[in-house]
Amino acid sequence: MEKLDFKKADKELYQPKTVPGVVNVPEMTFIQVDGQGDPNEPEGEYQRALETLYSLSYAIKMAPKSSSAPEGYFEYVVPPLEGLWWQEGIHGVDYTRKDRFCWTAMIRQPEFVNEQVYAAAVETVTRKKPQIDISAARLVTFAEGLCVQCMHIGSYDDEPATVDKMNKYIAEQGLLCDLSDIRKHHEIYLSDPRKSDIAKLKTIVRHPVRKAD
Predict the structure, then answer these.
(1) Rounded to an integer, what distance in angstroms lies between the CA atom of residue 192 and that of residue 41?
(2) Listed residue (161, 6, 137, 16) closest to 74, CA to CA
(3) Confidence of residue 213 (pLDDT cuts 50, 70, 90)
(4) CA-CA-CA-CA torsion for 70, 107, 49, 17, nearest 10 degrees?
(5) How confident is the model at residue 92 (pLDDT cuts 50, 70, 90)?
(6) Is residue 93 over pLDDT 80?
(7) Within 13 A of 90's CA, how many CA atoms are on the CB side?
(8) pLDDT tier at 194, thresholds 50, 70, 90
(9) How far apart are CA 187 and CA 49, in angstroms?
């Protein structure tokens, strides 16, 4: 049986063009970890968060190999890493102060993942990888709603040019950017920076919007 790849099944969410477009993002289930600090620190908080997210996500994916499959289980490709980003006390983004980043790292989960399935994954990771602190991780439903998104090609530090395109498009569509303490700058990582040419990195940049009053 062919594995479900969310990137292909939900093209409107994962295959935007390099010009901005509107998307209505439905409610989905995620494992999330909050943190702060420079994401590039080799052994920093962000890297530990990614280890936690991937360990839990693969424990769920591989569950049928070690125990009975969860109800509704199907074969799938683990979805890409995503992140919500902001900086306290800074208007916009200051890439020279990566130490000021606050973030929510997250990975989407299939529809069959509920609290029981998540608890089983926590037990598995705790038993097999006791060195990982999973206390900061949580299972959540996340409904993003109306957004504008665009495919960014290249270095993360060059994202302001893509954001500028998005802001111009938002204004042209008669929409308002709705970034806030609740709705945040969102990135979806389609490339592995450890294996890809920086100039060819593919990152979806997504900003929440609302209709003008």
Answers:
(1) 16
(2) 6
(3) confident
(4) 160
(5) low
(6) no
(7) 15
(8) confident
(9) 16
Does the reported pTM lie above 0.85? yes
For the chain, report the end-to-end CA distance as a whole number of angstroms.
49
Residues 24, 147: Cα–Cα separation, whole Å: 6
Max CA separation in the chain (angstroms)? 54
Tokens of 34: 């909050």
Q: Which long-range contacts (CB under 8 A, 24 or more apart) does 19-22 make?
A: 19/150, 19/165, 19/169, 20/148, 20/149, 20/150, 20/165, 20/166, 20/169, 20/170, 21/148, 21/149, 21/150, 21/169, 22/146, 22/147, 22/148, 22/173, 22/175, 22/209
The pLDDT of residue 98 is 87
